[in-house]
Amino acid sequence: MSTEGGHGSAMEPLLQLRGVSKYFGPVQALTRVDLDVMTGQVTALAGDNGAGKSVLVKTISGLWEPSEGQLLWEGEPIHLHSPKDAETTGITTIYQDLALCNNLDIVQNMYLGHELMRHLVLDEGAMEKAARQTLTDLSVKTIRSIRQPVESLSGGQRQSVAVAKAVMSNAKLVIMDEPTAALGVAQTRMVLDLIKRLADHGVTVIVISHNLNDMFEVAERIAILHLGHMVASGPASDFDSQVVVDFMTTGRSDRAAAGVATAAAAKS
After folding, report:
1. What is the mean pLDDT of residues 137-156?
2. Are 92 and 169 in contact (CB under 8 A)?
């Protein structure tokens, strides 16, 4: 077992999937998936379209319960019956649409559904102070005012607000679905730096991405799905772009490093 370094120095899994399968009638979307998500590290989840990434994320997020298998959180079995269960556990998922309200400002979005009250009225001062401090802690410096409407923000700034909202909810695991999709170079740089800072703050991150350059820049571990099977996982340093493409497109690679756990090895 590899003991590669990283932000999660204890090298303990925060989340483990053991034999997770998911059926939709006769369609099997996931087949006996095993995955360790290490505490305080960034894990990139890769796979071609239809590989099962979205199904896996929605299972971890509590949207769908597994048909078979077990999820463990900090070593203990958990049963997530809803996204609210996942959020209470400490799992926040940031989808591509970000689920932000364009007509509300940054503070209102960050506290939506969790507003602070004082003497039966909104405590605007406390919310502004905490929102500003969270953005500062994450080194988000491009936002002009925390009271500006979200609709006025760039794509990278919107991602920053969504991440800050997750941090304020005390998320231990943040799942980001294609966070750099449709972003320009400068905005992509902002989001990648933000992902690194999340890990620096001890937050565990799963990143779904089709961009291999982004994946290798931020991830300490890589896990690859192919047709619903987890075909490879291990330290990012044991992969290169061609090996990732091999696994994504065929489910196997003759060039994989010895440290990469593969589906073939698991069956042997």
Report:
1. 92
2. yes
Sheet with 261-262, strands from edge to edge, namely 91-94, 173-177, 204-208, 42-47, 221-226, 229-235, 261-262
Q: Are residues 198 and 151 in the same domain?
A: no
Q: Would you call 6 exposed, middle or buried from its count of C-beta atoms within 10 A (0-12, 13-18, 19+)?
A: middle
Once rounded to an integer, what is the mean pLDDT over residues 87-95? 94
Place of tokens 């099997």: 28
Confirm whether 97 is domain-assigned: no
Distance CA 222, CA 205 (A): 12
Residues 85 and 195 both lie in one domain: yes
Number of compact structural domains in the chain: 2
pTM: 0.89
Structural domain that includes position 109: 102-170
- Using DSSP bridges, classify how beta strands 68-73 and 76-78 pair: parallel, antiparallel or unpaired: antiparallel
